[in-house]
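Sequence in, structure out.
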Amino acid sequence: MEWNIYLSGEIHSDWRTEIKQLSEQEKLPVNFYAPVTDHPASDDCGVRILGEEEKDFWKDHKGAKINAIRTRTHIELADIVVVRFGEKYRQWNAAFDAGYASALGKKLIIMHPPEHTHALKEVDAAAFAVTETPQQVVDILKYVISKE
């Protein structure tokens, strides 16, 4: 069986690449999916495709809906959803993805630094595991995929 893993959350570090490389080293039978991680491309997709808007609200609205096609499709197809909350930015989209995945009954792994534990307590409570590092995520994947 090949497992579909959706990697949601912050886009300002290389955590996705690290998880992919570690999974390759372990020869895990996984397919990874992710949102568009080019921030300007993600923000501007709606107006680039559908036309300019005078107000930022409508610009963001168009982009969010187009991005949601990709995000929701991949979450719905995922066996496991990994959501990372980074140190620097408030990731409302990550919280939404975690809630959406949880509502669908997806297996949810949350990753964040210890200082976010209190702020993310409700998100953490919905998770099957809460991690701090990409290595811990891969160790979980290795265990659930490879152990008999």
